[in-house]
Amino acid sequence: MSFEKEKEPKRKVLQDDTLEDWDTPRKRKQHSDNREVGRTGQGVKGKSTQDRGRQKDRSLRHGKKKKSRFKRFLIKVAILVAVCAALHYYAVGVIYDKMNYVETASNAGGKAPIKEDGVVNILLIGNDSRENDGDGRSDAMILLSISNNTKKIYMTSLLRDMYVEIPGHDGNRLNAAYSFGGPELLMDTIEENLGITVNHYVQVNFEAFANLVDAVGGVDLELSSEEVEYVNAYLWEYNILTEQPEGTHYMDTSLSGMLHLNGPQALAYSRNRYLGTDFGRTERQRKVLGEVIGKLLKAMIKNPKGVMDGILPNLTTNLTQNECYQLSFMAGKLLTYDLEQGSIPIEGSYQNVTIRGMAVMEVDFEANKKYLEDRIYGGADTQE
Question: Out of 30, 39, 81, 341, which residue is the most buried by the measure of CB atoms under 10 Å away?
């Protein structure tokens, strides 16, 4: 029996002097690919390790450049914000320097918080004096409340004929508290009788009120012919106080309806206490203030110097400069808040009586406390 020697597979010597099988299509394909790699250092479908490394380096450098650009952008934004904040603080300081600051025990050194339970309360006092001191009577008392709880601004007139307990004094009309101890005692009296914490006030005299109306270009109000006559009667007194000729600022008594009033005319209109009750007088005051507030922003843009020069020198407050700075940041938000008006005492919570020869209003203060709590604070414990 003979055996044939088994044939060896074909071999081929490659360029790198290695032997590879050459007897199947798959091996020939593999051989071809390997030869390509050997010649160029690069696979058929992929890139070389060196190229991939270079690409990775380029990606890292590009990423670092992007981060560097973003960092520079953030630095520029931070500088811009800082400059704007500095200019804002400077502007507030310029405005504040024109006002008259008086420190009170309730807010010595700005110790009283500007906002409590989500509400900013500031007492607006209209003084019937032409000077900035504490002489004269509180002709108007309006509690300005900015409520974050209800997203509203409230102007609440406090009627001066309410019979109240005045700390350290006998009971008397509310405006007597101002006569006895100025804004500080008036705020203490309001807190004791109405349960509302008020530590900040802004006081304006006749001149500031008239200048404010003039600074916004006057106000348009609905007047009856009888109200026009009373405006002229109060203007007679105003002209004497301001040493102006008789007849200055008088209105045409043949007119009525929607009329345009300048500063002195609006002041005379709001002081009228002979038509209707004191409720009517305080309503007229709020009407004028409401019109002024609606036009104030536009006036500040068009005539900032006129507004500031006309009002600020005749304005006295216990708000510190930092507190005014805090309030200035609320300006944008306040443009979205609704304005509501009202008065204390509320209807059905008082009666007219005579006490020690004084015609006063005897008030159910518990009912009015609840009204203020529900209205201004939203009747909830939510704070902001």
Answer: 341
